[in-house]
Amino acid sequence: MKRLRDAGLLTCVLLVPLAVSAAPPPEVQVDYSADSTMETEGGMTMKSRVYHTVNKDRMEMGGSDGMTSIVRKDKKVVWQLMGDMYMEMPMDASNASGMEGFDIVEQAEVGQETINGIKATKSKIVAVKKDGSGKFGGFFWTTKEGITVKMDMLSKDGDKKMRMTSELTNLKIEKQSPALFEIPAGYTKNDMGAMMGMGSMPNMEELKKNSRQRQSGGKQPRESQAGESLGEQIPDVNKMMKGLFGK
């Protein structure tokens, strides 16, 4: 249940790397793909494959039976694909609008570093939500094209705090297929409002399991894990939040 309650914060955090750069964040104007590794508090690591073209992003998690998120800034929607189903959510400051829902209150260039063989500018950024409900801050490493190749940040949303680091590897700047950013033919749309009922979060794992059972003729395949233990804990997020935000 805790994972479901934290879903909104995690979604926001996941998409920050796609939007943040050292200046008031422009849209990255080049196409690219990369492997992403994200580590969160509590010792969880999440690996994904990311794709970008102008105003469109795709993130694949969990392999063939996992979940794919497609962010369409041009259409102001976010699509979540699971099995042979998809949900459509409006884009707003609470899920996938990146920096549009934030005001930057502190910003400074720290220096130049090389990340996985790629030259990047390291910057410190602190931002608050326009509605005052949350804030984040940390260090970001961006390429000359504005691609965030590494991030170490803290996020606070209400009384929830989260520490997260992420890094891109196998970065390739090249043209991406338009089909990556569309809903595949044959996918069934599920009404999110109906599934959420009286404001509760939909059970993503149950949805994926049901979809896989339909595809396998009712036989339940082996479950895959969304994350794995890192063997060591990320530093105390409360102490780091106090040092960064003063609270």
Helix content: 10-25%
What's the story with the biggest beta sheet? 13 strands, mixed
First CA to last CA: what distance?
27 Å
DSSP strand count:
13
User: Over all CA atoms, what is the radius of gyration?
Assistant: 18 Å
* Quaternary state of the chains: single chain
Q: CATH homologous superfamily name? A: Lipoprotein localisation LolA/LolB/LppX
Average pLDDT for all residues: 74
Find the CATH topology. outer membrane lipoprotein receptor (LolB), chain A
Structural class: alpha+beta
The proportion of strand residues reads: 35-45%
Total discrete domains: 1
Number of helices: 5
Shape: globular
Order of helices and strands: HHEEEEEEEEEEEEHHEH
CATH architectural type:
Clam
* CATH secondary-structure class: Mainly Beta
Unreliable stretches: 1-25, 93-97, 193-202, 218-238
Describe this structure in words.
There is one protein chain. By secondary structure, the protein is an alpha+beta fold. It has one domain: Lipoprotein localisation LolA/LolB/LppX (outer membrane lipoprotein receptor (LolB), chain A, Clam), CATH 2.50.20. It is built from 5 helices and 13 strands. Strands 1, 2, 3, 4, 5, 6, 7, 8, 9, 10, 11, 12 and 13 form a 13-stranded mixed sheet that branches.
What is the topological layout?
Layout (H helix, E strand, L loop, with lengths): L1 H4 L1 H9 L16 E9 L3 E10 L2 E6 L5 E6 L4 E6 L2 E6 L11 E14 L2 E12 L4 E9 L5 E10 L2 E13 L15 E2 L2 H5 L7 H12 L12 E2 L7 H9 L2
Parallel strand pairs: 6-12
Antiparallel strand pairs: 1-2, 1-11, 2-3, 2-13, 3-4, 4-5, 5-6, 7-8, 8-9, 9-10, 10-11
